[in-house]
Amino acid sequence: MLKQCKEEDFYQLRSVATGRLRPNKASSFLWTTFFISLITNGIVIWGVYGTDYHLRPSWLLFANICLASLIIQLIIALFYSKETMAYRFQKAQSIFLSIAAFKMSIDMYASLTIISEGDIYPSHIKSTGFALFMGGLIYLIISTLRGIKRVQQGEFREGGKGLYDFKQSKASVSLPIIFGATMMGGSIARTLSNSTSEFAQVGAVYFGLLLAVILQYTMAFALPEFFLLTYCKLKFEFFHIQMPRRPLKETPRETLIAKKQAQQVKASKKGTQKKARSKKK
């Protein structure tokens, strides 16, 4: 879909590549995604390994996958913490960044699923969470296709409107909000109408679900920029950012003079020692 597009069609992404998503900034974002995933995946790992209840074998496998993914994220974040590595391997870094950002956007659903395994939580909470999760994935696909279309329309060229034209994007922003609010409101209403359940006990789950939805749908709106930048990094050398040269620290004049005097004194001592040796001979 983007094969016919040239470098100039992605002009505005260049400022992103040299600005908020330049290699050293991207390394910081990798750490952000790791710590958020550490919290969300940590709940799953602690819940599975630390519970006394009988869980399905699939939960143990899922906890192992969460643990392995955290270890991989930590290794990648540590590797790219060194600035030279961030600039040298920035193409691979861009791929890891897109994957980590997408993973972060959906991680919270996993922790909510393990929490809602308890008997006190109504079954419709899981179905609501699953519907919201699938809605977020559909919204991500639509946002990505919209971003590709805007590239084809020339909106990323110099003087274009870029990815986020909020005046013409009211529908793409408001529809997910309406969908999420409707699903959440319906689920809360069902919980309140059920006399056997106590809303105070499940309120924390609803709050967590709200945070999960906000995170996923917000990232679904922003992720197309990550995907497009990754594409540009892999295809165009124009998007390979050179590591900036650090300015040399200026040495004070007094320090230079003192250093020069010390060298002169040292040289004169050596000359005196040579003369003394020659006289002895």
How is this fold's topology laid out?
Elements: H1 11-18, H2 23-50, H3 57-79, H4 83-88, H5 90-115, H6 124-152, H7 170-193, H8 199-235, H9 253-280
Helix pairs in contact: 1-8, 2-3, 2-5, 5-8, 6-7, 6-8, 7-8
Structure description:
- It is a single chain.
- The protein has 281 residues and is mainly alpha-helical.
- The mean pLDDT is 77.
- The chain contains 9 helices and no strands.
Main traits of this protein?
flat; 281 residues; mainly alpha
| Radius of gyration, CA atoms, in whole angstroms | 29 Å
Rounded to the nearest angstrom, the distance between the terminal CA atoms is 88 Å
For the residues shown, what is the average pLDDT?
A: 77
**Overall outline:** flat
Tally of helical segments: 9
**Structural class based on helices, strands and sheet pairing:** mainly alpha
> How many strands appear in the DSSP assignment?
0
Major sheet summary line: none
The poorly predicted ranges are none
Strand content: under 5%
Encode the helix/strand succession as letters: HHHHHHHHH
Helix content: over 70%
Short structural summary:
This protein has helices at residues 11-18, 23-50, 57-79, 83-88, 90-115, 124-152, 170-193, 199-235, 253-280. The chain has 281 residues and is mainly α.
